[in-house]
Amino acid sequence: MGDYRKIILPMMVIRRFDAVLEPTKKAVLEMKKQLDTAGITEQDEALCNVAGESFCNSSPYTLSDLRSRTNQQQLRADFILYLDGFSKNVQDIIKKFEFRNQIDKLSDHDILGLLISKFTDQSINLSSRPVTTSSGTVLPALDNHTMGTVFEEVIRKFNEETNITDAGRHFTPRDIVELIADLAFVPVKDKIQNTTYRIYDGACGTGGMLTVADQRIRELADEYGKRVSIHLYGQELADETYAIAKSDMLVKGEGEQSNNIFFGSTISNDGFSGQTFDFMLSNPPFGTPWKTDLKAWGDIKKEDIADSRFVVSYNGENLSLIPDIGDPQMLFLANNISKMKQDTVLGSRIVEVHNGSSLFTGKAGQGPSNLRRYILENDLLEAIVALPEKMFYNTGIGTYLWVLANRKEDRRRGKVQLIDATSFKKPLRKNLGEKNCEVDADIRRRILELYMAFEDADPDYSKVFPNSEFGYWELPVYTPRYDEKGEIIRDKKGRIAKPDSDKETVPFSYEGGMQAFFENEVKPYAPDAFLVPDDYRIGYELSFTKYFYKPVQLRSLEEITADIRAIEAETDGLLDEILEG
Asked: Does residue 488 register a pLDDT over 70?
């Protein structure tokens, strides 16, 4: 299946481009001749203008021309020449697909000619104009939108199949993508204006999140009679998925948009440094080391990172938001926060997928806890939605959707909503890898209803807390050491020397704060214990289990007694049978 997708996807893209360019092929070749005569080497812009597209091909051939080749060696040479004729943006796609690596294999197995024949068959029209077959049948044009839909469906099928066998791939199921889009746009649908919106995904994969986001915001804008201009931006590190995302944009006729897909690591090579976006939707990788980013920064240590996305100036100190080297997901969240708009009425909204570790990993003062602190103390967190397990193709673990906004509506200010949707699922008829359930349209609507109801939502599934509910002080409590005579050990100046210490966790909600906690919870049991002024750290963590845990209902005494008596009766009968035997 992996080799199959490495051939079919690029060939589908190439044939679409080929078919769209056929009507202007002669004019492009004439322009190329003029440019060659004039000694102009940078020809893409002029040739693409003649082609009337954001891409072009200046080779002497079309794919259909190659159908007549019977010699495999000649076909191989001409096909490579044909590929070499594409403009640079398509060359980038072909390179990232590693499609040229497949050509020798196809030629050696005498398949290349058959492949070209299948894709140029008269019964299949991948062009943007109607085509009449030799039998007189008119095949309708395939416009950019329809072609994009077809391509996305092929991508989806390949992704589902590949994710079942390749745990390294990271693909978000369509049902989750649609829920993410709903959470991003529906709460502010009445605030959408006649303007331009920028949507960004820093881990865009094949671009599915951007595509669905584009469709959803346009639908909502239409509901309110608004005309919006949507610009999509994405970054992707994996070669093939980058190629697919870029191809998808070009296939849809979005030439300018395709240039907004950046290749490289979002962490160490930010393709959109200094830019801001209206909406940011993402499913970043989690549980995968990011050591290569440290090497890309100059083989530095984690402590030496100075990127302002990940080390922020806050309350007079440099606050590190950097997580453990084994998991980059919170770096993607920090990256998105750094790109929030501060100067618009709507501000920015972020919806991002995380696993459970983002809720609680890291001690007070460490990167993950600091990021949670930064988010909550700046009142950026609107809600977290807990999803059912086994929602993704390559992992069965529970996942959470974080919803952030820097322009909260009045009723949400200073508060966080936790939604427990772990029981909201529809079983699949057939498992897709680890995925055995989905959130269909009805379930997505139910989650949105809980979200919109806010403090009036069903408390079994939704709870609202002040931001401070999740904060705590990590408080060192010191105890003097006793020498052999039972005397407190002191230094030459009479100060307590080398005291033992234990750390206590004091919730912000503890009445009276740290001092009251010390007096009430420590001093009665350790009279010699003492505190050091201003010696504490601030931490934040969230726990769904704490607020939504439902203990198993214990059986009544009557039920247990009845079972015991039934067992006794059964045992007595068995004993009688044995004795009688």
From this structure: no
